[in-house]
Design a protein that fits this description.
Layout (H helix, E strand, L loop, with lengths): L2 E6 L5 H10 L4 E4 L3 H8 L10 H9 L3 E3 L8 E6 L14 H13 L5 E4 L7 H14 L8 E4 L18 E5 L2 H11 L6 E3 L3 H32 L3 H9 L22 H11 L5 H28 L7 E5 L15 H10 L3 E5 L7 E2 L2 E2 L1 E2 L3 H6 L3 E4 L8 H6 L3 E4 L9 E3 L1
Parallel strand pairs: 1-2, 1-4, 2-3, 4-5, 5-6, 7-8, 9-10, 9-14, 10-13, 14-15, 15-16
Antiparallel strand pairs: 6-7, 11-12
The structure holds nicotinamide-adenine-dinucleotide.
Length: 419
């Protein structure tokens, strides 16, 4: 049986994409190298926050199935690659999953097929990495025999207002005809499409979006460090500046940046630019400031424990919210890791509370989890609010017996200290 779409990589990006396509009536299959992912989805279980088991059941009812057999890609008219683009051990771009996925597609490529890369990567990836793999072993040519496109994913985990359908999507092709095919495909389930001049513009646009956040978060973090040094209330500064109705976009300081995208994507840009002899100085400066933030939070916590007269080796600290952003279950690259690590290094006993994150390991050692918030606050000398999940009611936090270090600027009260 043929399929309209095969999604490669059924994670935080691929699964919501498959869900949107199924909902629009496209016959969709998914290919993933993880047997656990495939078995779970075929059994009706979602492993991605924001996609419920009920959504998977609806997808299954619409004919969706997952497989770890790459030969299934042969059945699809369009293949969309949504595999991870992380960093290698040396901190440089790791495109091994993109290469592996491209090889799997190349083995199944047939004339007329549309292949789209959605994974975030540096400008040139579609043309320089994916295209040679597809053309090399198949003998088919992009733009002539098959269509090759790049369309970055803008999914915002935890966002209830914007999803795949109503978030404008940038689409590009290796040739105008490739772009036309990509527009026709996405037009079936995305409301607004924005066509860029070429694939490098679309790749760069995605990196600009995330680098913009990276650099601006670093800017307010550095403002927070300066305000802390000089006794200026940074939260009041942010409130006042935020009232400007034009020319100012608000960002909040915190313990650092996390997730699979914001800390990683600028590294792709810096690496590619560096290889081309261009030095992105803003990225280097932002990286330097952001890497200081977990240690700053640890320092502030140590100062508070000192004020309380509690020696670090007798202190109990609970981290509230270890996910990298509010109301998500994703704790990848979360600054909670280095904060916990820094506190442990001072001899502090550290636990965490996060209803979204069932397990959290720091430096290879699991961090003790407290199930209930009252229990978490009761046993602690100090609570550190790292992530303002909507379950954290500020009245409960500020009435607690323990001191509260609030890195999100949400709480007020006699026992509360703001970052
Ligand atoms: N998570 C986000 O919020 C987000 C937002 C926009 C863009 N992106 C980008 O989207 C891409 C995917 O990210 P993600 O968060 O969905 O990753 P993820 O880790 O959640 O999911 C990736 C999936 O791909 C599978 N996989 C790995 N190699 C494979 C291969 N060779 N063939 C088939 N399947 C393979 C993994 O088993 C996993 O299930 C990345 O480039 C990321 O930067 C992510």
């Amino acid at each position: 049986m043929t399929a309209d779409l095969a999604v490669i990589g059924l994670g935080h990006v691929g699964l919501p994409l498959a869900r949107a396509a199924c909902a629009a009536g496209l016959t969709t299959l998914g290919y993933d190298v993880s047997d656990a992912v495939v078995t779970g989805l075929n059994g009706g279980r979602s492993h991605v926050g924001g996609v419920r088991d009920g959504d998977v059941a609806a997808m299954r009812a619409a004919g969706f199935s997952a497989t770890s057999d790459a030969a299934a890609l042969r059945r699809a008219d369009t293949v969309v690659i949504c595999v991870p683009t992380g960093l290698g051990a040396d901190g440089t771009p790791d495109l091994s999953a993109v290469r592996a996925a491209s090889r799997a597609v190349a083995r199944c490529l047939r004339p007329g097929m549309l292949v789209v890369l959605e994974s975030t990567s540096y400008p040139g990836t579609t043309e320089e990495v994916v295209r040679p793999v597809l053309e090399g072993s198949s003998g088919l040519r992009a733009g002539a025999d098959f269509h090759l496109a790049y369309s970055p994913q803008r999914i915002d985990p935890g966002n209830r207002r914007f999803g795949v359908r109503n978030t404008p999507k940038v689409v590009s092709g290796c040739t105008p005809l490739c772009a036309k095919h990509a527009v026709a495909f996405y037009g079936r389930f995305v409301e607004t499409l924005v066509v860029s001049r070429g694939t490098r513009e679309a790749e760069m646009a995605k990196l600009l979006e995330n680098t913009y956040r990276y650099v601006n978060i670093a800017l307010v973090d550095e403002v927070a460090l300066y305000c802390d040094r000089t006794g200026i209330d940074v939260w009041d500064v942010l409130y006042c500046a935020g009232t400007k109705p034009f020319g100012f976009a608000p960002f909040r300081p915190g313990a650092g940046v996390g997730g699979h995208c914001i800390p990683v994507d600028p590294r792709y840009l810096a690496a590619k630019a560096g290889a081309e002899g261009f030095s992105f100085r803003m990225l280097a400066a932002a990286h330097e400031v952001l890497s200081r933030m977990p240690a700053h939070v640890v320092g502030r916590a140590a100062g508070l424990l000192d004020e309380l007269g509690t020696p670090p080796d007798r202190a109990s600290v609970v981290l509230l919210g270890v996910a990298y952003k509010p109301d998500v279950a994703d704790a990848r690259e979360s600054p909670a890791g280095p904060v916990a690590s820094g506190l442990r290094a001072r001899g502090v006993s550290v636990r965490y509370h996060d209803p979204h994150v069932p397990e959290f390991t720091v430096d290879g050692v699991p961090l003790a989890r407290v199930e209930s918030l009252p229990e978490a606050l009761e046993g602690a000398d100090l609570a550190i609010l790292l992530q303002d999940h909507s379950c954290y009611d500020m009245t409960t936090l500020t009435r607690a017996e323990c001191a509260l270090l609030d890195t999100r600027g949400k709480a007020a009260g006699p026992r509360v200290t703001l970052l």
